[in-house]
Design a protein that fits this description.
318 residues; 11 helices; disordered N terminus; alpha/beta
């Protein structure tokens, strides 16, 4: 997941929360409903983090229960999802964190993918420490002081260096380059998935242990484990253009939606609905919390949100 250079789940016909090691690449398996012209079917790409699951759960619920569509969901990694969308194997991506290369190729040049507007949520990746640690060491929130505290973050996996915890190896990050270019005495260690990373952070927090982690907003976990962002060198446009030379913070990225171009033209009410689908960070976190923390099924979480927010979603159907 999800960086500017390649920014930061699901059984067929149902959406389930992943707990494994990142999203599998299912782009070779076309949905039987994708690009099904003339039939009331929609196929949505779903990524492996819970915020993306929340988007799809609510969209799926409304498409099925208010517009009478049959909805299929397909789990695809971020970059392959663009290929699948271009080829009509999926109809929509509801949360993209910025893939400029794919956008140029498929939207601007080939025109096989069409922009569908903003999701209404701004994403941001950063390095975070638990707020209880900041109270003990207030200057730890400046990257220049991280080496002074590296011994606090040592783990069996990081050896003599401090551990910088990342999530799934499928998420493309700048962290290894940042550690090298900022000359930090840290080792990037992958938890394996968002779910595994959350489990580790909750365990550290329960024991009030120090941890330094790659993390992102919006994310429901901030409500359970208060964290404070570490200030990295300020982001400036183009500072992350060369992945090997990155030495700056991650940008704030308005999250975008994309549709297959043929689906945009022939998808009828479903395509119009997905273009209008737009909610807030608070909305997304509300559904994410129900799915990931309260262990509700995505469908049940979506129904609960839909039942309590009619003024929001009715505008998407008009």
């Amino acid at each position: 997941m999800r960086v500017r250079t390649a920014y930061p789940v699901a059984a067929m016909t149902s959406l389930a929360l992943l707990s494994g090691c990142g999203a599998a690449d299912m782009t070779k398996q076309a949905s039987p409903f994708a690009n099904a012209q003339g039939s009331k079917t929609v196929t949505l790409s779903v990524q492996s983090w819970v915020g993306a699951q929340a988007n799809v759960a609510v969209a799926q619920y409304l498409l099925e229960h208010k517009l009478g569509y049959r909805v299929d969901t397909v789990q695809v990694d971020e970059v392959p999802a663009w290929d699948a969308l271009s080829q009509g194997r999926v109809d929509a991506i509801l949360e993209d964190w910025g893939h400029p290369d794919q956008e140029k190729r498929y939207v601007d040049d080939k025109k096989t993918i069409t922009r569908a507007g903003g999701l209404g949520v701004t994403g941001h990746i950063g390095w975070y420490v638990p707020t209880y640690l900041v109270k003990q060491h207030p200057d730890i929130t400046n990257w220049k002081n991280l080496n002074k505290y590296s011994s606090l973050f040592r783990t069996a996996e990081s050896g003599s260096k401090g551990q910088l915890m990342d999530g799934s190896p499928s998420y493309v990050t700048n962290d290894k380059a940042l550690v090298t270019n900022l000359k930090l005495n840290y080792q990037v260690v992958f938890a394996g998935s968002e779910a595994a990373q959350i489990t580790q952070m909750k365990q550290f927090a329960k024991e009030k242990k120090p941890f330094l982690t790659y993390w992102y907003a919006p994310q429901w976990l901030f409500k359970k484990v208060p964290m404070t962002e570490v200030e990295l060198p300020a982001y400036k446009e183009g500072c992350d253009a060369d992945a090997a030379k990155v030495a700056c913070a991650y940008p704030h990225t308005p999250l975008e939606k994309y549709l297959n171009t043929d689906f945009t033209k022939k998808g009828g009410k479903a395509a119009a609905f997905l273009k209008k689908f737009k909610w807030t960070t608070e909305d997304q976190n509300e559904v994410s919390l129900m799915i990931a923390d309260q262990k509700m099924s995505p469908a049940d979480a979506a129904k609960k949100w839909v039942d309590s927010h009619p003024s929001t979603w009715k505008a998407w159907l008009s």
